[in-house]
Write a structure and sequence with these properties.
Helix 2 packs across helix 6, helix 3 crosses helix 11 and helix 7 crosses helix 9. By secondary structure, the protein is mainly alpha-helical. The chain has one domain. It contains 15 helices and no strands. It is globular. Helices cover 79% and strands 0% of the residues.
């Protein structure tokens, strides 16, 4: 990767390593739907004026169908399910389940005509990573946590499809426009729920958590992430999940005093090793080059309206 790509990668690792901690703090006082509204509405209010000032509002309207679909798959449903899950699971466990996203992205390649076939090396990585997920999930199911682990698996599916949708349908649209449109649509959808479930009191720590989640981890993060997808492709970009997870687990253990369980100790290393095998070195490099080439063609062939 280029120096710029490494810089984007490092930025995403930090920015998306902290949401799990902040969500865990916020859902102590906020309904999960209110939190989704709190994450998306401020981001939309920040970015929409920028989109209008740049003359990109017509681009947003022209691509509204795919922007809306992206918003639902990447924001609307996953963030609600994650917030519900973090009321019952540790932030460490939720982040570890998301670590399966790179594995799912490799599986998704099998169904994309623009991608190379899944090789034996990748199948080995999938097998190792899959075993790790089974150990992680199986050993952590206790006291009714099963449904919430299932929710997080659905979140992982959404996080897998989102970058693919952007790379194939929205690569010609500026990242700011995509985030502004997606956040606006999701915020409008959750507004009635948010009004009906707004709490009578919100503490300072909760306000601060929501502010960081919205401004830094949503408005800023997705703009950076889209640039990363354009730089190295949708398949390799989700590998940042490995580092995100390590940061999230460290924060959960040190700040929230969450336990380092047997499931985490056994499952996480296998997920990490399997994901690296499935997405790295020659296979991943070729895939990344194909992704970048496709994105470049999309940018050339579908110039945004001005």
């Amino acid at each position: 990767m280029s120096r710029r790509a490494w810089f984007l990668f490092a930025g995403m690792a930090i920015i998306w390593g902290i949401p799990y901690l902040l969500i865990r703090v916020a859902v102590r006082e906020l309904d999960p739907g209110v939190l989704v509204l709190g994450r998306t509405a401020p981001a939309a209010l920040l970015l929409l004026p920028l989109v209008i000032a740049r003359g990109q509002f017509r681009v947003l309207l022209h691509n509204i169908k795919w922007i809306a679909a992206f918003g639902v798959i990447e924001f609307g449903i996953p963030w609600y399910l994650m917030s519900v899950s973090e009321q019952h699971l540790t932030s460490s466990l939720t982040s570890l389940i998301i670590c399966g996203v790179p594995l799912l992205s490799v599986i998704a390649q099998r169904f994309r005509q623009t991608e190379e076939p899944v090789t034996r090396r990748r199948l080995l990585g999938l097998a190792i990573g899959g075993l790790g997920v089974l150990l992680l999930v199986g050993l952590e199911i206790r006291g009714g946590s099963g449904p919430y682990i299932g929710y997080m698996l659905l979140v992982a599916c959404g996080y897998t499809l989102g970058p693919i949708m952007f790379a194939t349908k929205l690569a010609h649209v500026p990242g700011t426009t995509v985030v502004a449109g997606a956040a606006s649509i999701v915020a409008i959808c959750w507004l009635p729920w948010g009004i009906a479930h707004w709490p009578t009191h919100i503490g300072r720590e909760t306000w601060e958590s929501v502010a960081v989640l919205s401004v830094v981890c949503t408005a800023g993060a997705f703009i950076v992430f889209f640039e990363l997808v354009k730089a190295i492709g949708s398949t390799r970009s989700v590998v940042v999940t490995y580092v995100n997870t390590a940061i999230a687990v460290a924060l959960g253990i040190t700040i929230l005093h969450e336990p380092l369980t047997v499931g985490i100790g056994l499952g996480f290393p296998l997920v990490l090793v399997g994901s690296i095998i499935a997405t790295s070195q020659r296979d991943s490099a070729i895939s990344g080059q194909m992704d970048v080439a496709r994105d470049a063609n999309l940018t050339i062939n579908h110039e945004p309206e001005r």
